[in-house]
Amino acid sequence: MIELKNDRLDFSFPNVHPEAACRIDFQRTLRIPDDNRDYPLPPGLGSFPLQHVDDFKDAVPADWIRHGGVFLPMYQAEALWINFGGSYPCAVKIAAGKINAVTGKTWRNPLARKRQDYVVVPEQPWLDGFAVSRGMIRQFVAMPLGAGYTAEEQLTGTAEHGGVQIVVYPMKAAVYEKLRAAEARRGAGDALMCCDAQPCPSMGLAPGGLMRQEIYDDDYGVEAWDQTAGSRCFVHLLNSLGYLSVTGHRPPQPPPTAADYTRAGLPWFEYFDAERKALEGAAKLAGLDSVAAKSIKKGAGIIADNGPIGTPKVKSLGPAGAVREGEF
């Protein structure tokens, strides 16, 4: 079951286990410079507003009605990151325009057995972009479908789907209870700590600037996930002007530039978990043109707000619940 609550998608699987649930929201953020330098994690600037497709059937494209799901507004060249929540382990597959964000392969519902094509929640706290190499992603950046920028168009030559596709599989109840019992025996308590002007212009996600982020290996193995109980959601991306036309609601104000944010002395972030193994990136995704590179190839010039940001203030983050003992 999927519910929309407070601009958040709540996935729950009561038929698997009373605690089986996962939360996903889409965070507004800074678009990092697309200059082939790598950057730390930008901040979350609040959740994008989510709307039910079915509440606006008379205003959205017919294929949106067929796909169902939800939609959110984005400005052209605006960035987002995907935030995961919940303590019950789940395998989450993310695609953009039906291109898998971890492997670069076309969408398939089942979890891949040979090469991991999903993230594990809660070990993976967020996903900011397309996995291009070990410890490195290219930021999710919204661009209009049909202009040739999106990962979908670069890999398939078509602008058919756009948006973001999600499927969530909960851990099998028997595996979860076995893990929880093992945690209890180790004295860990009962908490399992593992895990623009058209009437309705659709958008897709293109690869932006390079960011330091690891995508972690699945320590449980593909057999731990109950693939008979998955839930899918299609998240459509709508140009911000189209969002006003469709819903009558104004979209959020444009986010600050990365340079303005840095000049204000506000923090960027780095997340590191020494106990987790990071996946390799995907050669298919590494070979894509970034938004800046594609813009130059198309003769559109240099993209706006892509200059240097100065020296960022970086805060280190670690796994949730970790406490540093320090010296006595």
Explain what you see.
By secondary structure, the protein is of the alpha+beta class. The chain has one domain. The protein is built from 7 helices and 18 strands. The strands form 2 sheets. The chain has a 16-stranded mixed sheet that branches. The N and C termini lie far apart (50 Å). 45% of the residues are buried.
Task: Supply the key terms.
16-stranded mixed beta sheet, 7 helices, alpha+beta, two-stranded parallel ribbon, 328 residues, globular
Average of pLDDT: 90
Element order: H for helix, E for strand: EEEEEHEEEEEEEEHEHEEHHEHHE
In total, how many beta strands? Answer: 18
As residue ranges, the low-confidence spans are 188-198
Put simply, the count of helices is: 7
Please summarize the sheet with the most strands.
Answer: 16 strands, mixed
- Oligomerization state of this entry? single chain
Structural class: alpha+beta
Q: Estimate the global geometry from the Cα principal axes.
A: globular
The figure for the number of domains is 1
Helix content: 10-25%
Evaluate the radius of gyration: 20 Å
Share of β-strand residues: 25-35%
Distance between the termini: 50 Å
Produce a short descriptive summary:
This protein has 328 residues and is α+β, with helices and mostly antiparallel strands. The chain has seven helices and 18 strands.
Write the layout of secondary structure elements.
Layout: E1 2-5, E2 8-12, E3 21-29, E4 38-39, E5 51-52, H1 62-67, E6 70-74, E7 79-85, E8 90-96, E9 99-100, E10 119-121, E11 126-127, E12 129-133, E13 136-144, H2 151-156, E14 164-170, H3 173-185, E15 202-212, E16 231-239, H4 240-247, H5 258-263, E17 267-271, H6 283-286, H7 291-297, E18 313-317
Parallel strand pairs: 4-15, 6-16, 17-18
Antiparallel strand pairs: 1-2, 2-3, 3-7, 5-6, 7-11, 7-13, 8-9, 8-10, 8-14, 12-13, 13-15, 14-16, 15-16
